[in-house]
Amino acid sequence: MQATILIIEDENKFRGLLSRIIEVEGYQVLQAQSARAGLKIVETGEVHVVISDVKLPDANGVELVKKIKEIKPYIEVINLTAFGSIKDSVKAIKNGAFDYIMKGDDNARIIPIINSAIEKANLQYNASQAISKAGQQYNFSNILGKSKVLANCIDLARKVAGTSTTVLLLGETGTGKEVFAEAIHEGSARRNKPFIAVNCSAFSNELLKSELFGYVAGAFTGALKDKKGLFEEADGGSLFLDEIGEMNLELQARLLRVLENGTYNRVGDSKISKVNARIIAATNKDLKHEAENGGFRLDLFYRLAVFTIYLPPLRERKEDIEPLARHFIKDFSHRLNRRITSVDEHFIKLLENKPWKGNVRELRNLIERLVIIASGDRLTPDLLQTDTYNHSLEDDIKTLDLADIESRYIRKALHQTSGNKTEASKLLGIGLSTLYRKIEEYQL
User: Fold this and answer.
1) Do domains 4-129 and 133-312 have the same CATH topology?
2) Highest mean pLDDT (candidates 87-91, 123-127, 163-167)
């Protein structure tokens, strides 16, 4: 999902300049000239981060933070001011602002601050969505496919669902690990409690630690009040730790303690807290190999791998491509208000012969794109031939060095995800921090 930034600023030139700077990073930008207009967008639209001037014609931006948080608590707010004061900065943070920065002086910091704010907003949005999912049906009927290998995976998942056993889901990026995790939760006695999903590769380790375990006031700069962690939010339910292979050794030690005796400490707190949350973990890495080479705790690996399910890549279960494609066509036709009523059989055959390095996620993204560009009510083979995004790099790979190949694939992933770096990192099977480093290295 592409992050959306709302700028609330009454100076037209500055608002336009800031908007262009942010849009270059691939974010969608909305604009408002007043607090009233900004609040209306917050109430009715999908906003992740708000950048608000402190001095607005109809409100104080510091006080506006509190109103925004009351409407949608997961939104992060950055206050901008031309005339800063310590009093205002302290009040802004107390009201829940992510940061308080000076216009002009902090221009070089604005994009890194926005990136960090989006990380936190996404994490909190996912948590709020997960909590609201409690009781909804995400059962095994949501897993589409007719291959024998998929049926075996579903059978294993059904058997373990009714227990409280820790589950480790293995497989390439895009094979549907989160769908399986949700189905396991829904098939358990915990189904009426929260299911919370966290992508461990999408956040810095410090942020991930404070969000998972919570913190107490004074634990670090900006921690002005106690905050619940996602373990506490998931108490009685399930916590899905996606891409757990990206978690650092300190966090692994904390997780091992939770798995062994159900206890943990909030960041900055000596008091021991107890939790009863089922852990479902997933990774696209060979965790055993990582553990044997010191990149992952061996004791944690064995604790997680009590019950392991390997989800095969889509290219190894071609019988599942047609039902998945037809489902995505129907879904996107409805969502995008497009009338796609039929599919050419040769179109399906071409889909079945593609390598699908991005697995189900790649198929889903392709179908969404083709539903949009289709001129009629039928998906035909020529759509795949004219879809320039899917032009193979292998055609001219002999003329490229490794850096060229890597940079082109990163560009393709960013294009496919509309500039969303978190989704692009998932598609590429690398950590978010690695993606940012590569983007800087190749000046993308």
Assistant:
1) yes
2) 163-167
